[in-house]
Amino acid sequence: MTDAQTPSAPAPDTELTAAEAAAEASEQKAVRLAKRERLIESGAEAYPVSVPVTTTIPAVRAAWGHLAADETSGEIVGLAGRVVHLRNTGKLCFVSLQSGDGSRIQAMVSQANVGEESLAAFKELVDLGDHLFVTGEVISSRRGELSVMATGWKIAAKAVLPLPNLHTELSEETRMRSRYLDLIVRDGARQMVRTRAQANASLRKTFAERDFLEVETPMLQTIHGGAAARPFATHSNAFDTELYLRIAPELFLKRAVVGGIDRVFEINRNFRNEGADSSHSPEFAMLEAYESYGDYVSIAELTQTLIQNAALAVAGSHMVTWADGTEYDLGGEWDRISMYESLSAAAGVQITPQTSLADLQAVADRVGVEVHLPTHGKLVEELWEHFVKPGLVSPTFVMDFPVDTSPLTRAHRSIEGVVEKWDLYINGFELATGYSELVDPVIQRERFVEQAKQGAAGDVEAMRLDEEFLRALEFGMPPSGGMGMGIDRLLMALTGLGIRETILFPLVK
């Protein structure tokens, strides 16, 4: 136990109802607002523009964490943090200050050092949740708690709402809607922010080592494309035209390759007006990359390296430990399986690119798989998800997809009826996809026309014919490999958490 303490959490039978909690918070807010007024009336500031900070809580802990009980450092510091524990008794008060990364240090405010008037003001005005500045010597208390023996203090920001009970786990609803509270009270929330930053930094480092350039492409587009997805629509007053939030950056990144940026990538936001569940969010972070003179084999190798390097950056090993304690191995060479061959083996019937729509529909009817506006490719992919996907645990590249579901992908160089595309599955969910890119403008136009027919038949996810993109291809795009990977899903693979936990501020209804 430290010198700074707070009252214990209420027993379950004394917990407040939602209405009682709201009433209590309202009452506390009124009390705290009155304290704010008294601060201002006294000539102090409730929200000063700055305080004379000289160091940070983590830095003090790193430099003086070795102090033995009752030992002093001789170093005078000025530091600030959020008040998360408070005990006001007698002539010596204890307060625990927390920095943004969760590090804490104790401050001791004694009448002997700050004076009777200052101590009285401290007891009257400082609350849990306030940002507090203290100056004084770094010491170790008689119980061995690293502390600052304050010679002065100042409120850096007055909290007018009380913190949640630090001894009680926040509800999922509160964590999603009020992530700032989640960050204050929960180590896991703060760690996810660091983990995500480490993963993104690793991705950029791996790309830089391979001479890829990072670019930014439009998120407002006149024609949506680059994926089979339903877009969000909006209106531009300046141009008096309908626009779409992008569903993928692909068609613009390929324009960059046409222009001579041979290795290009982007990490940015995509928007898809579709369902939300444990692995889908309407707004999500996406990585896409294109490599001239590569193909879906070379881009698979790059993707494996990107993910394995991210695991090393986050966990120090290819073996990552998920939130539930499960250890998951991202190391070694990952399996590669054929979509058609794995489906045939699991379904117990031979399925090839030449299998008729009627035969596929018969298999789907037998196992209860329903497909809206069925095509050969849609039935094959849905049947594969039914039969094969649930059994995938280790990292696996699923290779060679039907032509009609992959309109931006080059036909397979040796297998008729499929394209050179893979999807990467990690523990049963799709993490990334990669292509040998279709660069023939004549075939690409034919594929777009077929997509337009599907759209006219009611397929809301079908791509539209993009004349400007086709014109760019007509100037010549080199043979290329391309990949796309959800950053949120990468964090899922590294942490074992659901997608809303990996997003700092997820969209909630």
From TrEMBL:
<keyword id="KW-0460">Magnesium</keyword>
<dbReference type="Pfam" id="PF01336">
    <property type="entry name" value="tRNA_anti-codon"/>
</dbReference>
<dbReference type="InterPro" id="IPR002313">
    <property type="entry name" value="Lys-tRNA-ligase_II"/>
</dbReference>
<dbReference type="InterPro" id="IPR006195">
    <property type="entry name" value="aa-tRNA-synth_II"/>
</dbReference>
<dbReference type="GO" id="GO:0004824">
    <property type="term" value="F:lysine-tRNA ligase activity"/>
</dbReference>
<keyword id="KW-0547">Nucleotide-binding</keyword>
<keyword id="KW-0030">Aminoacyl-tRNA synthetase</keyword>
<dbReference type="Pfam" id="PF00152">
    <property type="entry name" value="tRNA-synt_2"/>
</dbReference>
<keyword id="KW-0808">Transferase</keyword>
<dbReference type="InterPro" id="IPR044136">
    <property type="entry name" value="Lys-tRNA-ligase_II_N"/>
</dbReference>
<feature type="binding site">
    <location>
        <position position="423"/>
    </location>
    <ligand>
        <name>Mg(2+) 1</name>
    </ligand>
</feature>
<feature type="compositionally biased region" description="Low complexity">
    <location>
        <begin position="11"/>
        <end position="23"/>
    </location>
</feature>
<feature type="domain" description="Aminoacyl-transfer RNA synthetases class-II family profile">
    <location>
        <begin position="201"/>
        <end position="506"/>
    </location>
</feature>
<dbReference type="InterPro" id="IPR004364">
    <property type="entry name" value="Aa-tRNA-synt_II"/>
</dbReference>
<protein>
    <recommendedName>
        <fullName>Lysine--tRNA ligase</fullName>
        <ecNumber>6.1.1.6</ecNumber>
    </recommendedName>
</protein>
<feature type="binding site">
    <location>
        <position position="430"/>
    </location>
    <ligand>
        <name>Mg(2+) 2</name>
    </ligand>
</feature>
<keyword id="KW-0436">Ligase</keyword>
<keyword id="KW-0963">Cytoplasm</keyword>
<comment type="subunit">
    <text>Homodimer.</text>
</comment>
<dbReference type="InterPro" id="IPR045864">
    <property type="entry name" value="aa-tRNA-synth_II/BPL/LPL"/>
</dbReference>
<dbReference type="InterPro" id="IPR018149">
    <property type="entry name" value="Lys-tRNA-synth_II_C"/>
</dbReference>
<dbReference type="GO" id="GO:0016740">
    <property type="term" value="F:transferase activity"/>
</dbReference>
<feature type="binding site">
    <location>
        <position position="430"/>
    </location>
    <ligand>
        <name>Mg(2+) 1</name>
    </ligand>
</feature>
<keyword id="KW-0648">Protein biosynthesis</keyword>
<feature type="region of interest" description="Disordered">
    <location>
        <begin position="1"/>
        <end position="23"/>
    </location>
</feature>
<keyword id="KW-0067">ATP-binding</keyword>
<keyword id="KW-0479">Metal-binding</keyword>
<comment type="similarity">
    <text>Belongs to the class-II aminoacyl-tRNA synthetase family.</text>
</comment>
<dbReference type="InterPro" id="IPR012340">
    <property type="entry name" value="NA-bd_OB-fold"/>
</dbReference>
<dbReference type="InterPro" id="IPR004365">
    <property type="entry name" value="NA-bd_OB_tRNA"/>
</dbReference>
